Amino acid sequence: MKEEEIKRLVKIVEESNIDTLEISRWGRSIKITKNTMGPNSMTNSHSTQTYSAPATALSQQPVEPKVQEAKPETPAVGDEIKSPMVGTFFLSPAPDADPYVKVGSTVKKGQVLCIIEAMKLMNEIESEHDGKIVEILVENAQPVEYNQPLFRIEPA
Fold first, then answer.
1. Are 119 and 62 in contact (CB under 8 A)?
2. At a CB cut-off of 8 Å and minimum separation 6, what does 144 contact?
3. Mean pLDDT of the chain
4. Torsions phi, psi of 38, nearest 5?
5. Model-level pTM?
6. Residue 10 in domain
7. 115: number of CA atoms within 13 Å, CB side?
8. How far apart are CA 66 and CA 132, in angstroms?
9. Does residue 59 sit within a domain?
10. Containing domain of residue 124, as a range?
11. For the chain, what is the domain count?
12. Alpha-carbon gap, residue 10 to 61, rounded angstroms
């Protein structure tokens, strides 16, 4: 997640009635908690990133969020690329075409890895980062569930 997005989310939490906002995406999560006990307290949980936003009623001065570095939730082998939807998994754009990727393929951020067909729409699934495909976890033309791991990728 980009720094601008994180700052925007922290601002939303500060200005709203919510105490906690947690978002999980592609095997990583971020949790933003409004600090209601004072500027030095911070909640720790199993989340990979925790930001403590100051409570507006308690502090007039801006306080920098406390940050814990993100750690992948996936095994040490590499990051998992998960399905963003329910549908049918396809490794190639057509039955007689070459697959987008194979085990050992080097991929770049934004490169198409596969297609998931949902309600007769073909949705291209792209890589979120550079790396090497170490495992394909789904057979071609098989149904997939939301958030089901599709690929294991070793970051470059």
1. no
2. 83, 86, 87, 88, 89, 116, 138, 150
3. 76
4. 125, 165
5. 0.51
6. yes
7. 18
8. 33
9. no
10. 79-155
11. 2
12. 15
Q: Does residue 12 sit in helix, strand or coil? A: helix
Tell me the β-bridge partners of 112: 126
Asked whether the beta carbons of 107 and 101 are under 8 A apart, the reply is yes
Q: Tell me the C-alpha distance between 138 and 141, whole Å.
A: 9
In-domain check, residue 95:
yes
Q: Quick check: is 138 in a domain?
A: yes
What is the per-residue pLDDT across 42-89, written as a single tens digit (0 to 9) for each? 444 444 444 444 444 444 444 455 544 444 443 345 789 999 999 999
**115 strand-pairing partners:** 90, 124
Give residue for tokens 């600090």: 35
d(CA 80, CA 28): 10
Written as six digits, the tokens of 65 are 């969020």
Q: Is residue 147 classed as helix, strand or coil in its secondary structure? A: coil
Determine the length of the chain. 156
